[in-house]
Write a structure and sequence with these properties.
The chain is mostly helical and 260 residues long. It has one domain. Helices cover 64% and strands 0% of the residues. The chain is built from ten helices and no strands. The longest helix has 33 residues. It is elongated.
């Protein structure tokens, strides 16, 4: 009888889907955090995306709760509208003051913004860096951009606390307070763009640069900085354009509340 012990293969450990231990390193020590992230060959974007979805929902709920019952945001110069125009505006405002418009639709838009923004940003960053000579994969870029979005979760938490303390929604996000809300033309577009500019978007851009430099170590740092900065500027301009178009459409609803 043989005395040789039969070796038992060690059980295969499945990789964890959620990696909460990387949250603080990415925010506080980004070089160390992204050094671990770019070593992964699988998708590890679920943790930051779920966190962003959760904080987005919390922010939407806070904005709805702090909204005064029956509160209407009157457009500039409302007192100069004709009685028919004022009646049309009030009718449209009352139709959009229910829970569906206060909570459901904003929540859906917030969740779509998380997913669509992440997919577009990661795809464009990967495309531009590939043109510049990068050899990274789309999956690695998606991982980096997802984890680099953590500052937006911090911003949602800060806005949630600010709305609860102040008891009202945030009227002028970012730097939009430097331009009056009734500004016309290009000034209104500038206000939409400034509303997106704050400490957290700059923090996000820095994290994307750090993460993509870790993912593309063969590319010069200045090339990564220039490429990522250009992509983010273009995406901000497109987002500001969408906000500008939405504001213009909202102003048109004063004279024609419904399109059907």
């Amino acid at each position: 009888m043989s005395d040789t012990a039969t070796s038992v293969p060690a059980p295969v450990q499945r990789p964890r889907a959620l990696r909460f231990e990387w949250l603080l390193p990415v925010l506080i020590r980004p070089r160390q955090g992204f050094a671990s992230i770019v070593e992964e060959t699988r998708g590890i974007w679920l943790t930051p995306i779920l966190l962003l979805m959760g904080t987005s929902i919390v922010r939407v709920i806070a904005a709805g709760v702090t909204r005064a019952p029956g509160e209407l945001s009157l457009p500039p110069g409302f007192e100069y509208y004709s009685p028919e125009q004022q009646a049309q505006f009030m009718q449209a405002a009352q139709a959009t003051s229910g829970p569906v418009f206060v909570y459901v639709f904003p929540a859906i838009i917030a969740l779509l913004s998380v997913w669509v923004g992440w997919l577009i940003a990661s795809g464009v960053v990967h495309f531009v860096l590939t043109i510049q000579g990068g050899r990274g994969t789309t999956l690695r870029s998606a991982n980096v951009v997802a984890w680099a979005g953590l500052p937006f979760a911090v911003r949602d938490i800060v806005r949630f606390a600010a709305m609860l303390i102040a008891g009202q929604p945030i009227a002028s996000p970012g730097l939009s307070g430097f331009i009056t809300p009734d500004a016309p033309g290009i000034a209104l577009f500038a206000a939409s763009l400034l509303a997106l500019v704050d400490l957290y978007i700059l923090w996000h851009i820095v994290l994307v640069i750090v993460g993509m430099h870790a993912a593309e170590p063969d590319l010069p740092v200045l090339r990564v900085v220039a490429s990522v900065s250009l992509v983010m500027l273009i995406l901000l301009a497109l987002q500001a354009g969408a906000g500008f178009a939405g504001t213009q459409l909202q102003r048109l609803t004063v004279t024609q509340p419904f399109f059907f």
